[in-house]
Predict the structure.
Amino acid sequence: MQISRRDFLKVASAGAAGAIVFPSILDGELKAFAREPVKSKPNVWDRVFHHACGVCDSVCGTTVYVKDGRIKWIEDNPADGLGGWGKACVKGSSAMRHVYDPDRLKWPLKRTNPRKGKNEDPGWVKISWEEAFGTIARKFNESIEQYGPQSIVLLTRTKEPDTRLQKAIGTPNITNHVDTCFITPQLAWLAATGKARPWCVDLQNARYILSFGWDMPGKSKLCYYQPFFAAKDNGAKIVVFDPRMSMAAAKADEWIPIKPGTDLAVVLAMINVIISEGIYDKEYVDKYTTGLDKLAEHVKQYTPEWAAQISDVPASDIVRIAREFATTKPAVIPTHKRDAGGPNYANSFHLALAEVALSALVGSIEQRGGIFWPRQPKVRSLDEFAPVKFPEMKEKRRIDGLHLFPLITSTRLGNFSDFAYGLCAAIEKGDPYPVKVALANQYSILSFPNPDHVIKALCKLDFLVVVDILPGETAQLADILLPDVHFLEKEGAEIRSYQALWPQVEMRDGIGTLWEEKGWSSIVNGILEAMGKAEFKVDWKGLEEAQLEDIGISMDYLRSHNGIWEDKKEPTPNLTFNTPSKKIEFYSSMLEKGGYEPLPTWHDKLAHPSEEYPFYLLITRNPWARHGKLGNDPILMEIQPSNFLHIHPDAAARLGLKEGGCALVTSRTGKTLKMPVHITRSVRPDCVATEHGYGHWSKELRYAVGCGTNEGDLIPDMTIEEHLSKKSYDPAMSACCSDVCVGVRKA
Amino acid sequence: MVDKRDTGYAMELGTARAVVYRFLARCFSYPDKELLSLFDRTRIEEFLQSWHLLGMDEKEEVSTASRWLKEFCEPGTALLELEKEYTRLFIAAYPNKVVAPPYSSVYLGDSRQVWGASTAQVARLYEAAGLGMNENFHDVPDHIAAELEFASYLIAEQQKHNGTEADKTREMASIERKFLTEHLCKWATLFLSRVAEYSKVDFYRVIARLAQKFIDYESKQAQTLE
């Protein structure tokens, strides 16, 4: 078609009354631009700022370099002497790649495909926050009206915005990751000292470090890694009990490859040796503890010879190490989550309890070179800042049976491993009552035992909201998917908790959101507002400002002081305890009152090698992994694109396995995983080990999907009945993540 | 103000280019009612006239896009289909990955990530042209829709100021040349060929093809200018 110039001009000037004759298509305002350049922050293109890392709870101070508007480099902040100690780890210095991941969640999304499952395309469409909040509020309110507030389940954390939302809704069902993480030592410390778990270990001043599976050096958690190596430089003796040669074991003076799940026997025998030989710290024990007589009488049965038979550790070593531990001061037992005293074996609670007793016997609690509770600045609490009266929670029973474990309920910690059973029962049979909707915040299904069971449960919900950074597995099952803010985008302040040997506040001075992400506390406020519960909203920013004001600082102060405020001083021992006796109780009155064994007592683990499943399963994490969260980082994934089955050469020869070949691994969950084999003397011949953080199946994670396997598939979850059957000795209802045996054959 | 009717051929050509850029910018924005109204009679005519003035003839493809929209009797249904496909292509895709991330750095950088050197490059050109990102534009500066709109703006500004502010016109022209040759033409074809190849919806496939042709034209034009 030919067009004359005149025709075109006619079109071009159509509708234009004035002198400017442009086609109407050019009339509209610009969408992407403002006529005046908007500069949200000074030096937005090239700047350097201090920022508290948010990858793990070490919360190391970092220095972030922005060039051309993009974070190019993250390194240490030398001013932080409690977290990174002037170093940054591989996870922290890689963190910017998630910010700029093109697959990241950017706007609220809505599912258009009603079918849910691992292989269902959710059919996302972008929606506005207004629509997202509106839909969530409508679904929540309908569920409350029809089935009561207990029909809403929150898979979040027990942090403040989460519990605000929970209490405003009035549901007892809030759950999180603590039963696979730290609930066991938390409860043991509470039972023995009246105070929940201390997070600080003064490793650098210790002369003797005794680890029962503790391996923070291997997890590159710098707040523990740095003082561990400082202690080594200072000449501390390090002894590590671990069925696998961990990083801590590799750096130790002695690695003792103990049989998995038998650390309790060794600790009990050590307590016996130390008390019977009278080499405990008499002054400390007299002043700050009670119940030594009862403990002494009780542990007489636990001889080193008895423990040797159970644990494969020679009796002479148990005696020698007990003597060294009691007489080399200061001596300390660092513990942290996934070690033997974490929630990994059915007897882990008693191990944690025994570790508290052993620490107290050598005067290692609240003493230089020992264990401390965090020293935090005194600031106003949320309830002081924004007092509010919540509606009465009518339904106290939880779908996961937690209400049957009163000791955990009193610590306000949730539970997960029963959740799938509870949720399925509630959805399918309305037992104990119907559950219809749920909200999950940064909650990876892969981090829990038998994830397929959880997936089945989540798929059956009427409505699921997921909040996350990347479209992971849980997100695949969402009806509404909300984008969370990445910590590098955030602005704010963090009060240190881990390794807070003195009070410290670190700044976040991030780059601002790239798309329409909202922080979790804003999301909670948005949901409350839309639900007609605006009275429960909190001015979180205001709270933070008020807390900084209580300390006498501000964001500007932090900006001009290398991003860190601290009240640096060596901790003065605080030896007051919140037990009825106000002392550390070897014989716990809290446990006695609750109907539990009040003294650390031997119990066996659950799973033992059988003909079908002859190997103990050990789980570890790579230093560049954080739960399953960092799998979509192309560079971190390149370090090791798959997890391995680590197996001893003798066992490998017996099974005909070759280095680089593949093995099939099975357990009583009925799942079979195909894993590449790595033959190594770093595991006992009766154990196999593998790394967590692999096996992603979300098809929206371009780098992580299909890499390796998730060992959680081999870990059985437990029914409420199974938990109740070990209740008498495990009041922490732990998930027993490592209490499993597997079968291995050549693929 | 100058009366456009008295000016020469180059200006009309400029207007035509501005129209095509603006049309495509809207097509690569999140689909809404405004996108549907682009295909009403007046506007589609404006686009077609401009298109032909540039010496291109792809009426068939435009009518495919229009027809596709009309086939859905309910505008709401068409919109939902477009929303799903737009989200899949450019925001969050199942399976495997966002099909065609609409950001220059994904194609020009070596990391395939959002926000690279090219993002800063283009954002600095926006600043040089006196523009900042709109507060309501919650996206990264090198989003394809922003870049196409920017090109349209630069050309339209030159038309506006031609004859009155020679310096300003020259400045805009220089930014335009830099922007097209050193930035947009370098990555838009890579991006558009992904859309043309992988879109499951005719609408985006033909729009991508049109855009490819136009960018080819622009590349050639820009080269002759140098």
Observations:
- Chain B touches chain A through 80 residues (CB under 8 Å).
- DSSP finds ten helices and one strand in chain B.
- Residues 1-7 of chain B have pLDDT under 50 and may be disordered.
- Strands of chain B lie at 132-133.
